[in-house]
C-alpha cells in the first residue's frame, strides 16, 4: 500500500507537525505501508535530506501553466526512481490531504482548481481521497465554487475542522454524509523535552506571524508590530519573563528581531524540530500566538493561550476550547488588553484557565481519535 500525505510541509512547522501526526497514527495501523509526500521540485534541495531521514519517499508534483510537470518523472528509469525514492502519481493508492488552510478564496482560485483537477484524475484510478481536518472557505466566485463541487464529489471523506469551515463548505455542496466536522488532529501529538532553555526565567512565549502583515488590512498590518511590542512591555512591567519563538521563515525572523530590539533585547528561539517546539510550549505559563499550530500546541496542553489571527480559523479554535475571549485585537484599547493579559499573569486565574483548557482538550482529543477511526474504516472498506 502506497500512501501519500499531501500538502504536508517541511518548512512551515505547523505543516510538519501535521505530517508527523499523520505518520504516527497511520504507521500504527499500516506498519508495512510506503509513505510519501508530494514535493515541489523547487524545494527538493532544502527538504530532501529530511525526507530521507524520516524514511519517506516523494512524488514530484509541480503545476505550472496548467501542466502537471511531475508526470515527466515517468521518463526516469524505474531503477533510478527507486534508488532516489521517487514515486509516480499513478502508483499511489491513498491520498491524505493535510493542507491545513489552502482551499479558500483567500488564495484565489489556484489551490481549489489544482485539487479539482487532481482529484478528478485520482478518481479515474480509484484512489482513496481523504481531506483531513483543515480550514475551508470562504467561497464567493462561481469558478471557485465549481472547483469545490468537483473535489467534494471526487473525495471519499472531507473533514472541516470547525463550524465556520463546515458552513462554508455545505453552503456550496449541501450536507453530505462524507462531510464531517472534526478538530485539528495535531492535538494528539506529544512534544519532546527541550533542554536548551531555562524555563525558570522564560515563562511567556510570543509567536509572531508575517501573515498578520501581508494578509490583513492596512490598519491591522500597520498596528501589528506596535501591538506585539506593547504586549511585551506590559508583561515585563508586571514581572513576566517573555521570549519569542520563530515558527516559520525569514519574514517571521525579521518580525521577532524587530520586537526584541524595540524592547531592549528578548531571547529569540529558532528551533527546527516541531516536536521540540511543542515541548517548549508545553512548559510555558502562557502563550501569545499569531501562528495557528503554535496556538493548538499550547491549548491542547492546557497552556493559557491568546491569539491574534488573520482568518476565521483562530477564533474558531478558541471557541472549540471554550476561550473565545482569548482573541486579541491589535487595535484593542489598553485597558481591555491589559485586563486580558492580567488573566495569564495572575497565578490563580492562570491556573483556573489552564484547568478549563485541559478539560476541553481531553474532549477534543477524543474527537480526533474518532476522526481516525473514520479514516481507517474508509481505507479498509
Distance between the termini: 14 Å
Radius of gyration based on Cα positions:
21 Å
Number of strands: 13
Give, in order, the helices and strands: EHEHEEEHEHEHEHEHHEHEHEHEHHH
The name CATH uses for the topology of the largest domain is Rossmann fold
Number of helical stretches of at least 4 residues: 14
Biggest sheet character: 6 strands, parallel
Number of domains: 2
CATH-level-2 architecture of the largest domain: 3-Layer(aba) Sandwich
Mean pLDDT: 94
* Helix-and-strand structural type: alpha/beta
Across the major sheet, the strand order is 3-2-1-6-7-8
Give the CATH level 1 class of the largest domain.
Answer: Alpha Beta
Relative helix content: 40-55%
Beta-strand content: 5-15%
- The H-level CATH homologous superfamily of the largest domain, spelled out, is Glycogen Phosphorylase B
- Weakly predicted, low-confidence segments: none
Topology:
Layout: E1 2-6, H1 13-29, E2 34-39, H2 44-53, E3 57-60, E4 63-64, E5 67-68, H3 78-84, E6 94-97, H4 110-124, E7 128-134, H5 142-154, E8 157-160, H6 163-173, E9 204-207, H7 211-214, H8 218-237, E10 242-246, H9 249-262, E11 268-270, H10 274-282, E12 286-289, H11 292-299, E13 305-307, H12 312-320, H13 334-345, H14 347-380
Parallel strand pairs: 1-2, 1-6, 2-3, 6-7, 7-8, 9-10, 9-12, 10-11, 12-13
Antiparallel strand pairs: 4-5
Helix pairs in contact: 4-5, 8-9, 11-12, 13-14
Amino acid at each position: 500500500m502506497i500512501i501519500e500525505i499531501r500538502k504536508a510541509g517541511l518548512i512551515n512547522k505547523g505543516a510538519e507537525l501535521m505530517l508527523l501526526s499523520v505518520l504516527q497514527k497511520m504507521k500504527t495501523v499500516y506498519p508495512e505501508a510506503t509513505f510519501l509526500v508530494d514535493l515541489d521540485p523547487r524545494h527538493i534541495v532544502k527538504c530532501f535530506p529530511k525526507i530521507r531521514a524520516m524514511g519517506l519517499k516523494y512524488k514530484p508534483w509541480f503545476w505550472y501553466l496548467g501542466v502537471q510537470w511531475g508526470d515527466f518523472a515517468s521518463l526516469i528509469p524505474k531503477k533510478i526512481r527507486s534508488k532516489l525514492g521517487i514515486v509516480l502519481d499513478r502508483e499511489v493508492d491513498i491520498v491524505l490531504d493535510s493542507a491545513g488552510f489552502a482551499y479558500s478564496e483567500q488564495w484565489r482560485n489556484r489551490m481549489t482548481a489544482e485539487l479539482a483537477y487532481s482529484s478528478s484524475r485520482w478518481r479515474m484510478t480509484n484512489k482513496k481521497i481523504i481531506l483531513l481536518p483543515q480550514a475551508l472557505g470562504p467561497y464567493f466566485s462561481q469558478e471557485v465554487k465549481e472547483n469545490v463541487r468537483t473535489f467534494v464529489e471526487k473525495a471519499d471523506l472531507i473533514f472541516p475542522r470547525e463550524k465556520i469551515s463546515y458552513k462554508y463548505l455545505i453552503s456550496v455542496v449541501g450536507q453530505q454524509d462524507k462531510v464531517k466536522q472534526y478538530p485539528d488532529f495535531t492535538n494528539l501529538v506529544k512534544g519532546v523535552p527541550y533542554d536548551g532553555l531555562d524555563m525558570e526565567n522564560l515563562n511567556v512565549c510570543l509567536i509572531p506571524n508575517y501573515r498578520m502583515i501581508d494578509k490583513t488590512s492596512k490598519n491591522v498590518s500597520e498596528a501589528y508590530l506596535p501591538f506585539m511590542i506593547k504586549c511585551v512591555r506590559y508583561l515585563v512591567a508586571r514581572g513576566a519573563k517573555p521570549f519569542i519563538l520563530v515558527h516559520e521563515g525569514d519574514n517571521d525572523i525579521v518580525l521577532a528581531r524587530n520586537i526584541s530590539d524595540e524592547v531592549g533585547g528578548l531571547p529569540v528561539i529558532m528551533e527546527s524540530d516541531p516536536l521540540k517546539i511543542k515541548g517548549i510550549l508545553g512548559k510555558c505559563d502562557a502563550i501569545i500566538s499569531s501562528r495557528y499550530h503554535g496556538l493548538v500546541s499550547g491549548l491542547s496542553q492546557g497552556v493559557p493561550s491568546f491569539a491574534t489571527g488573520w482568518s476565521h480559523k483562530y477564533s474558531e479554535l478558541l471557541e472549540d476550547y471554550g476561550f473565545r475571549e482569548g482573541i486579541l485585537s491589535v487595535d484593542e484599547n489598553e485597558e481591555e488588553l491589559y485586563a486580558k493579559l492580567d488573566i495569564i499573569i495572575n497565578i490563580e486565574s492562570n491556573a483556573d484557565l489552564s484547568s478549563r483548557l485541559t478539560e476541553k482538550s481531553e474532549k477534543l482529543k477524543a474527537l480526533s481519535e474518532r476522526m481516525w477511526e473514520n479514516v481507517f474504516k474508509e481505507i479498509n472498506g
